Description:
The protein is an all-alpha fold.
Amino acid sequence: MKKIAGSRVIKTGVAIFITAWICDMIGWPPVFAVITAIVTIEPTVSQSIKKGIVRFPASAIGSFYAVLFITLFGHAPITYALAAVFTIITTYRLKLYAGLLVATLTAVAMIDVIHTNVFLSFFIRLGTTTIGLIVSTLVNLFVLPPDYTKDIQSKLKAITQRTGEAVEMTFCQYILNRVDKAKCQHELDQLDQEVHKIESLIEFQKDESKYHPLTVDEQKEFQHAQRQLVRVKIMIYHMDNILNTPLTELQLSDKERSKILESVHELAYAMKTHTQFDLEQHHQKLKDLMELYWEDSDKIRDGKQEYPTAFPAEIIVLYELVSIFTIVENYYKEEGV
């Protein structure tokens, strides 16, 4: 992400230089063109174009009100206030939200620089806006085009590791009957935030692919990353299910408790270290957990004990754990680890 942010700084500098140079060659004031160029450098080319389309008419509205109120009131304090207020109201009513700030700044800044022909100034302002939009979009298109695939891969690997830690913490605490719900929930909330960040990067890459298509291999890796992120989200969902279900203490024998803890530790270790995943051993652990699940199911079929949920705590925890085991198996099958 730091590399992407650094490239954006470089592109902004290049766009400012070219924009100011063109305006200087024409003899137009570069300040408004430069402002437009700065705000039009977006994370993707698609966003630059979309927001540029909005910012052009918004800037025209700001310029219009600046010219109008200078004509009516001259360079008076009321001119600044009215130009800003009417610009905000108009852009908001027209739903030009992405251009609201630029339009307002334009309206206020123009008042201070217009001293001669106000109508000529209006058309020059439109011209400088056009230069800023075109230059910044072309720079975003050709200079250091953003590529989010590597950042997505690294963040996905990191969140897989953290999810393994969360699985270990959540299930071990429940198995040992000393769960700290607040701590576990905080960790899941942190994972949710990381998921949203990766999803944002995925959307950026989808937008960018319209103008810089991925190769066949890159497209496969990108789609693979999306599927893996979905699996991570489902694992978080299963852990969240446990934390938000009222459970009593688990009634497990020492042997059962030991078997489950061993399975959890091995599963978490593979996710945390991203080491070679032994599917055969994983299948055996999953089979053991399923046997425990069905044994506990048989115990409650003829029982009359009431529980705070439809099922006893042991069944719920085992079900969620078995579900995560299955997801992890699919995760590493596709990962090829």
